[in-house]
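thread: overnight batch results

M.L. [08:02]
morning all. the overnight job finished for the chain we discussed friday. pasting input first so we're all looking at the same thing
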Amino acid sequence: MAEKIRVNIPKKYDLVVGDTFQLYYRGIIEAPNPYVYSIVSICDKGRNFPRYFEYAPTEPGQHKLTIKVYDAQRNLLGEGETMLNVVVPKEPEKCTNILCIGASTTAGGQWVGELNRRITGEGGEPAALGFKNAVKFVGTCKPAKYPDVNLTAYGGWHWDSYLTNAPGAMWVKCDNNRQVDDQHSLWQDVNGAIWQLETLQIDYLKFNRWKDHTSPRPTEGPLVHYANAADTSPIEFTSSSDAPKTPFFIDELGKIDFKAYAEQIGADSIDAVYIWLGGNGLMSQQALSLPRKEYCKVVVSKGKQLVGLIREAFPNVKVRIMGQHLSSLNGGTGTSYGAMLPLTDTYEICNYKWELNLAYEAWCLEDEYKDFMEFINIAGQFDCEYGYPCKQKPVNTRSTVTERLDTNSVHPTTEGYYQVADAVYRNVVASFCSE
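M.L. [08:03]
and the structure it wrote out:
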């Protein structure tokens, strides 16, 4: 009996005339190595290449795309079908206020900044639309490198983080000489509690609570190395402070209130919300104790709580749930997480993200949500094989021959973030800026 391979593909992808769409098989075919199979894309438009399907549309329309996976004996192992929805950009009559909510993959502003450029900018590559008053990005945070956008995102956060007003992560003030290779490493405080390094800034480091421990935040150092850092020297710090709690909680009201939040950030309305969450929380006690599918249900239940609060304030809001991109498949998990389960099990993390993507899409298609929500599949539009920071490393300790290994499992290169921006761009244009 031939094995079965699931093609994890959504019901629809938005495409835009003048924009090249690429659908990467690694992101949608659930197999440790999909390239050992025969992958066939079937569509009246576009081209089937070894790693991806590509289509650069020149006119609007809808096109069915079918992807089939065969073994060497031509047994059909799995197939998936999606609709390519091609639209033509058109400058809208009114501006859409967009709130982007996320974690560290949003906090730097890379994909939001590039999305803003593609819609409101001039020239560049790909060429921007130049729709000056089409979208405005609102939020609590203004990334230093992207001053034209605002967003709301914090490293290490997940759905729960935005629903609770309890302290979680901490910042420590120190002479920071840590590099990206140290990101996600583990450190022990003077009381024996373990903290995970999340964010690196000049003079400051941010740490999350490892496995959601509830120990008091240390007020003095040092933090000593526990696991996975490139630089294992102790982290001496002069002070610590609690990281910000959810910005949606209004102290004067004693509750989360998006209407009041919008007033605080100077937005007359929130017309659309793009949410990219779900990658964090895998080391929570709940995640570790539940089967994958059950934990995905918990994640969606938290998402429904947050979306319900947004809708309570803005009944006409449009909500877009961004799916998870695949982790590094070329050494990034080893660099970031050492050999600790579950995070070192790269394929199991992929399985979790595929399962979560299915759960997100199913949520968006529920009767209660389908009229105002959509799912954006990021995994298929992000080239996880060439989207992460990398270095050349000797193939073994006795050789001068080197091989390419990723140095991060979660945070893409700038070009990788731009692919995320491209995926969201297609949805923004189809939703708010098209004929």
